[in-house]
Every structure is written in structure tokens, then in C-alpha cells.
């Protein structure tokens, strides 16, 4: 049985040769879960995380691209970090990269950046409550995290999605794609603050939001005869 999160993913699984009767579009359980969390206010986040918000606030996550070498990943990270230098009245909140190859190099580079740039913070672990509360409060998410594609549109906030890590995923109009290039990233940041883009955000729809995903899955599983299910 295949549970997918958009109609496009339904078609892709069917193209792989699966029986369409065994494919179900139920939406994202991640999007469903964030709706059930009582999110914290900006003041509560400042106290809990011991940070200071600014006029503009960015949430940043850089995961290593596993098919790239250490030097290639370092070069990409450098382009991102350079784009974040000398931003006026801006707080930068970094989250931990995935524990893939080159993980330690990324952590080291971010820590070095933090020591040289005021109002920059790096958190190893936040948990759902704090993380999604930050998503609600910040102005923009930057990096290559799936969260920027799947959950962030539900907050009607912009995402600058950098590189190829999320290539092939269905994306809302709030997601701006760009290469790992300092100048291009800065251009997307300026656009994300524009009146034109803010009009887009007001009406953006999250393609992964299908309602109560877990309830849909449970109802489907209850009807399935597991004794006659296809073995592979």
C-alpha cells in the first residue's frame, strides 16, 4: 500500500507500475502535526531560547548534498554564509544539519560564522514546538531543508530553497528556488521582502495540506484485507 502526499506523487507511483487501487493521496502528516501544536509567541521564544529578535528574522538550515564532495559542499555553504553577512537589523537562527557525510565540516563552519556575526544563533535540537513556533515568527526560511517546502507554506511565509536537495518535490508559490550563489541568494532575499511577493503569500496554498492525514490512513488500513495483500 502506498500513501502519498500530493496528486502528482500519486501519478509518479502509478508510473512505476503500481496498481492505482493501492495508492492513496492523504497529504502530509508533518503538516497535520504542526496544526495540533500550541505554538509559542515571539516573546516566549525569546525567553526560552535566550535570543533577541530583530526587525527581520531568518531561519536557516543547510544539509549536506550527499552526492557532492566535501569541497563542493564547503563551497556551497560558503556562498550561503556570505549572503548572510552584514544584513541590517536581522537575526539569523541556524538549525543543525542532517547527520550525513560532511556533517562535522558544516557544524564547524557555522560555529565560526556565529562567533563573527552578532545576533546569530545555532541550535542543535529544538523539537517540534520550538521549531514550528520559529517558523511562525520568522520572516523567511533559507536553505535546502524539506521543511521549507512541506511545512513552511502553511505559515504563509516565504522559503528560499537553494540547490538540488529538494529537486523534484512539488512546491508552493511561496518557495523561491535559487542556486548556491551569493549574489542570486541576496536577490531572492530582497524579492521576498517586496510587496509583490507579500501579495503572493496572502493567497498561497500548501499542496501538502489534505486535512487529517492520519485519520485517512487509519480508515484505509481498517478496510484492507492483509491476508490477500500483494507480496513483494
Structure summary:
This protein is of the alpha/beta class.
Q: Features of this protein?
A:
about 15% strand; globular; single chain; 10 helices; about 230 residues
Verbal overview:
This protein has 232 residues and is of the alpha/beta class. The protein has helices at 7-15, 29-35, 42-49, 70-83, 103-116, 127-137, 146-150, 182-192, 195-202, 213-223, and strands at 2-4, 23-25, 56-61, 90-95, 120-123, 140-143, 158-162, 175-178. Strands 5-4-3-6-7-8 form a six-stranded parallel sheet, with helices on both faces. Strands 1-2 form a two-stranded parallel ribbon. Strand 4 (90-95), helix 5 and strand 5 form a beta-alpha-beta unit. The model has no long low-confidence stretch (mean pLDDT 93).
Radius of gyration over C-alpha positions, nearest whole angstrom: 19 Å
Helix content: 40-55%
Using DSSP, what is the number of strands?
Answer: 8
Number of helices: 10
Strand content: 15-25%
- Average pLDDT works out at 93
Question: Would you list the SSEs in sequence order as H and E?
Answer: EHEHHEHEHEHEHEEHHH
Distance between the termini: 11 Å
Major sheet details = 6 strands, parallel
- Supply the helix-strand structural class: alpha/beta
Q: Ranges with pLDDT <50 over ≥5 residues?
A: none
Shape: globular
Read across the widest sheet, the strand sequence of neighbours is: 5-4-3-6-7-8
